[in-house]
Design goal:
The complex is a heterodimer. Chain A is mainly alpha-helical. Chain A contains 7 helices and 2 strands, in the order αααααββαα. The chains are: A mainly alpha, B mainly beta. Chains A and B meet through helix 3 of A and loops of B.
Chain lengths: 154, 435
């Protein structure tokens, strides 16, 4: 009985979600150039795109599991560098990072190249992906936010 | 450790099956398999996998980032740490009851680093910017642990390849690696689209081996002789008594795909370039950053930062490697075996500790083992083979790169046993042969 109810409830949820999704798709383009990515479907799409950016731009150093490389490349999992201030995080992507950094007593010193050639959307996507994967949970970052930070970062 | 005991039986069973598969695979693959597993490679009590007749004891553990290691003529072991443990950067380990485990452990030295070697009553240790030495008494105790002599100070360390691996010859000279503060000498390091600099300015002050006087305190960087150039970074190095020359293991360049995705796919980037052994002489040039060695084409290839396309050869003025290993395995320890304990084939051959890769992702990581290369008349006389394996803990941990242990330093004891350090947890193994 509970199971049937659960299935029915899920089905209703699915229908409602699909309805909302199609509504969203009608109201807005699926990829918002500068708008915030806060609704659920937008978040999911951003994460999916971000995963591709991660594979192309980040994975070879930060690794498949984002745990980095001991002594060289810092982990991206459950650290304030990733989950904390968005401005600092976006600026690291834009400007890269050189010099030693310390996380929980371990130091890392591999050079990170600047990635300013990525679009605002790509940076938003990859950071949203990293902040919502590998056990991380943090607010999405929008292309609009990246644009503002990029303008301030010269 | 508890987890490990619990899993040991299944690991052992797995490895027996695994070894059988490897043997079967080798038989089928014939000459195409370059990596020859030693037949009868079998699990040791503490998880390492060794050839039949060899046994490893856990000599010490919990030292943390244990880098290079040196053993005195009476078997006292010194280990250099890259992270202080209880405020100390060097540990003296002594096995007073001969059970293969250190029972007298003392720490000293307030600096971190990599280099550690012992000669003529002195212990030499390096930080990332200096080389020190400590006088040892006739029982190999450190005479003045708080006041080492400054042999060389002011060495270059710019946050990349800064470990100062050291070794000595038998004529009173000290050889120090000064690694390149760069991956491939681009204008902006490790950045796609940034061109290579020719001439590469890094070569003037780094990316080579510098030679100093081993017994002269107070030397500075400027007092060093620029002994060899074109070496991106060297961590494993040893003086070969047969040839009376210095042999080094170079860490090859990274990120061919990241930087040149149109030329190299991720698989090529995982396998190239080779990690190379070189025999050095005064004035040797090994070609970095302009070339790298491709072990499949057996050629020195022009680096893409300098116009290369993965096929154009270059570096006619650069040495060929003595032997080439798969890419990115990170050779951190080199030891020419001069003992009599191991079977005859090991005499004068090279043991190499491969720290294990990171720059093979998204391909599986590799390494985390100690290999052996037989030598005759100062040259390799056969294929390399895995000597000690499973430092990572399992094939899955090797593939993910999340190794439990990573081999780093190698040294030979007076009884002909060899010692291996691990700079993840700080285990030191003593490997012996008992027929």
């Amino acid at each position: 009985m509970t199971k049937t109810l659960g299935i029915s409830f899920s089905a209703i949820l699915l229908i409602v979600a699909c309805g909302l999704l199609s509504l969203t798709n009608k109201s807005f383009p699926p990829i918002q150039k500068n708008g915030p990515v806060q609704n659920v479907s937008g978040l999911k799409v951003s994460i999916e795109r971000g995963k591709k950016v991660y594979a192309e731009q980040c994975l070879s150093c930060h690794q498949v599991d984002a745990l980095g490389v001991s002594g060289m490349t810092p982990p991206l999992v459950k650290t304030k560098w990733v989950l904390g201030d968005k401005t600092t995080l976006v600026q690291i992507v834009l400007k890269g990072l050189t010099g030693e950094i310390e996380i929980d007593g371990d130091t890392f010193h591999n050079v990170m190249a600047p990635h300013s050639e990525l679009t605002d959307q790509q940076i938003a996507d990859v950071l949203t992906y990293v902040r919502n994967s590998f056990g991380n949970k943090a607010r999405a970052i929008s292309a609009a936010e990246v644009k503002v930070i990029r303008a301030k970062t010269k | 450790m508890k987890n490990f005991s619990r899993n040991f039986l299944s690991i052992k069973a797995f490895y027996l099956a695994f070894s059988c598969c490897i043997l079967a695979f080798s038989a089928c693959a014939g000459d195409t398999t370059k990596v020859a597993f030693v037949s009868g490679l079998q699990p040791n009590d503490n998880g390492l996998i060794l050839p039949a007749g060899f046994k490893a004891t856990t000599f010490a553990e919990g030292l943390g980032r244990a880098r290079h290691i040196a053993v005195t003529s009476d078997g006292v072991v010194f280990v250099k740490l890259a992270k202080l443990k209880d405020g100390k950067g060097i540990y003296r380990l002594q096995d007073t009851n001969g059970d293969g485990k250190a029972d007298l452990v003392t720490g000293f030295g307030d600096f971190t680093g990599t280099g550690m070697t012992v000669r003529n009553g002195y212990l030499y240790a390096s930080s990332d910017v200096a080389v020190y030495r400590y006088r040892l008494d006739d029982r190999n105790k450190v005479v003045n642990p708080d006041q080492p002599e400054n042999i060389v100070t002011g060495l270059l360390a710019r946050g990349e390849h800064e470990a100062k691996a050291i070794t000595l010859d038998y004529d009173g000279n000290l050889y120090v690696n000064i690694g390149a503060y760069s991956n491939s000498c681009q204008v902006v390091d490790r950045t796609k689209g940034s061109p290579g600099m020719r001439p590469c300015p890094v070569l003037d002050s780094a990316a080579g081996i510098w030679k100093f006087k081993a017994d002269k305190p107070g030397q500075t960087y400027a007092d060093g002789v620029h002994y060899a150039t074109g070496l991106r970074n060297v961590v494993g190095l040893d003086w070969n008594k047969t040839t009376n020359t210095l042999f080094v293991m170079q860490h090859g360049r990274d990120q061919l795909h990241d930087l040149f995705p149109d030329i190299y796919d991720t698989k090529q980037s995982a396998e190239l370039p080779a990690e190379c052994m070189y025999e050095l002489h005064q004035g040797s040039n090994c070609g970095w950053p302009y070339i790298y060695y491709d072990e499949f084409q057996h050629k020195k290839i022009l680096a893409p930062e300098f116009g290369g396309d993965s096929k154009k050869t270059a570096g006619e003025d650069a040495q060929d490697p003595v032997i080439a290993f798969p890419g990115h395995l990170a050779p951190n320890g080199l030891l020419f075996y001069t003992g009599d304990q191991f079977p005859a084939k090991y005499k004068n051959g090279a043991f190499i500790a491969f720290h294990g890769s990171w720059n093979r992702a998204p391909e599986h990581q590799k390494g985390f083992f100690v290999v052996f290369v037989p030598f005759k008349d100062g040259k390799p006389s056969g294929e390399w083979e895995v000597f000690a394996d499973n430092f990572s803990g399992s094939p899955a941990l090797t593939a993910s790169g999340r190794a439990q242990h990573r081999p780093c330093g190698l040294a030979q004891g007076p009884d002909g046993s060899i010692y291996v350090t691990d700079d993840t947890k700080g285990t030191v193994w003593k490997i012996s042969y008992n027929k």
